[in-house]
Amino acid sequence: MKKLEIIIPHRWLDDVSEILKNANTGGMSQYKVEGRGKVKAQEVAVGRGTMKYTPEYVPRTKVEVIIKDD
Description:
By secondary structure, the chain is mostly beta strands. The chain has one helix and five strands; from the N terminus they run E-H-E-E-E-E. The model has no long low-confidence stretch (mean pLDDT 90).
């Protein structure tokens, strides 16, 4: 068996779920995670829009799937 871990933007979760369902992989688990890498976080307005804040970590979704070898 193989464990497949995929880290994707939240908006792709429905598409990935549908693809995995069509591939008959069985179940999947999803977690909300944060990290940093090539993609930079966008500025967020805080304090009723009077200040801007750039978070260090970008929110993502981690999907885990167990797949049979064959």
